[in-house]
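Supplementary Note 2. Why include the ligand at all?

Several targets in our set were suspected to adopt different conformations when bound, so apo predictions alone were not considered sufficient. For every target with a known small-molecule partner we therefore ran a joint prediction. The input for adenosine-5'-triphosphate is given below.
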Amino acid sequence: MSNNKVAIFGGTFDPPHLGHLILSEQIKNYFGLDKIIFMPAGRPPHKRNQCVSSDQDRLKMVELAVEDNPFFEVSDWEIRAEGYSYTARTLKEFVPTIAAKEVFFIIGADSLADIFDWHKPEYLLANGKFIVFKRPGYDLDKILAKEKYQAYLDNLKLYQGISIDLSSSFIRDQIKKNNSIKYLSRDNVVAYIDRKKLYR
Ligand SMILES: Nc1ncnc2c1ncn2[C@@H]1O[C@H](COP(=O)(O)OP(=O)(O)OP(=O)(O)O)[C@@H](O)[C@H]1O
Ligand SMILES: O=C(O)c1ccc[n+]([C@@H]2O[C@H](COP(=O)([O-])O)[C@@H](O)[C@H]2O)c1
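The joint prediction is reproduced in token form.
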């Protein structure tokens, strides 16, 4: 298979859910991607004070979530890397190792809204290519109309197709309340969470 267009989908994935999967499949179709690499963040820089499940649990759950999709892969590169999982670093060090004509980062509208608080945002936006998808509660057009984004619009491709209002925090919250999370992620991920008693 040719790898002309590859996208990296970085996330905390604590846990991965159907929102992530539905979006990825739609984006793959819409942009004609050859492959999407799911990249669980080792130490998510903006979640320093939040309790995050172990790297190995999140990696395993992402592997389970994508195992039946030949277009989806998982990389443990950020988990293996020392220090915080800065996307600027992934762009500089990991992206050149991918044999592809074009490499994109997939991010949600909420991530785009605070990307100027990320590590080296100008470097990232000037040198990376992004596929940004809408997320309920965020107005993509309004975010992009802001002055600070204007120099980088060529590197921002939008996907305004379907998305669902689901988050990992909602799933964690449901588990804490002893509610079922059936249908919110793939069955194998739900079974893994049950078996390992995560988020209780
Ligand atoms: N339902 C969704 N619709 C659109 N984008 C999403 C959705 N869920 C997650 N994303 C995006 O996917 C990426 C990875 O998300 P992440 O793993 O943090 O999940 P999350 O549901 O946002 O988690 P949490 O609730 O813990 O913040 C982020 O760029 C986020 O914007
Ligand atoms: O580089 C940064 O400073 C930075 C700050 C916040 C988030 N990110 C990345 O954005 C992706 C989505 O993050 P999250 O926490 O919403 O899952 C994930 O790959 C993070 O490593 C990166």
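The radius of gyration is 16 Å. The longest strand covers residues 5-11. Comparable summaries for the other entries are listed in the accompanying table.
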